């Protein structure tokens, strides 16, 4: 179980590395959001992060969010970062301010329909599976070009940008080409479709500094804050 001092120190270390990465890239600190991924950690441990003044959190499962989010201060902001099953959409919408894992047109259409019924306008990211890994969800580059017009017609969805989970690699540097490709895809789609996608949800514990150098606007960091999952 992590202790409050360790969590405090980890947050400070990450904040310093984020600052160093934005400096290196000639960017501004307020262009990058820092999400703490609290999946698997109990409410008492998440509260330690809250006690340090942190307010932005991510969970990958709706069920876990339903159990934890109501137990924590209502001033926090929660994002869903894991695959959203269609039968969980109605429960997810009021809990999560943003959905990072819109991974198919069909899912987007269902979220749009249910958001309409619930009177909501969710902020979403389109998850891209650049490496076309069979084990991962997300639009291929081909699919996103095919589906983007239809996605833009879903008037309840505020599409903020693109999201990626790059293939697991031995070295953090090996993620860089995927971050570059996601940025280039965003830029290309903005030109081709004459729109503003803007944001890039990319970077995890091992590679968030690299992601920021390549244009990330929101990093999703778990184990660098809490230590390895399953180490309770
Ligand atoms: C678990 C998870 C993270 C955080 O991973 P760490 O390596 O622990 O930082 C980020 N994004 C997604 C989609 C995740 O599922």
Helix content: 40-55%
Low-pLDDT stretches are: none
Spatial sequence of strands, sheet with the most strands: 7-6-5-4-3-2-1-8
Strand content: 15-25%
Protein model, in words:
The protein has 232 residues and is an alpha/beta fold. It contains 9 helices and 8 strands. It has an 8-stranded parallel beta sheet. The model has no long low-confidence stretch (mean pLDDT 97). The structure holds pyridoxal-5'-phosphate.
Task: Map the helices and strands.
Blueprint: H1 4-24, E1 33-37, H2 43-51, E2 56-59, H3 62-68, E3 77-80, H4 89-95, E4 98-102, H5 105-118, E5 123-127, H6 141-152, E6 158-163, H7 176-193, E7 199-201, H8 208-213, E8 218-221, H9 223-226
Parallel strand pairs: 1-2, 1-8, 2-3, 3-4, 4-5, 5-6, 6-7
The structure holds pyridoxal-5'-phosphate.
Pyridoxal-5'-phosphate binds next to strand 8 and helix 9.
Keywords:
232 residues, alpha/beta, eight-stranded parallel sheet, 8 strands, 16% strand, globular, binds pyridoxal-5'-phosphate
Structure summarized in a few sentences:
With 232 residues, the chain is of the alpha/beta class. 42% of the residues lie in helices and 16% in strands. It has helices spanning 4-24, 43-51, 62-68, 89-95, 105-118, 141-152, 176-193, 208-213, 223-226, and strands at residues 33-37, 56-59, 77-80, 98-102, 123-127, 158-163, 199-201, 218-221.
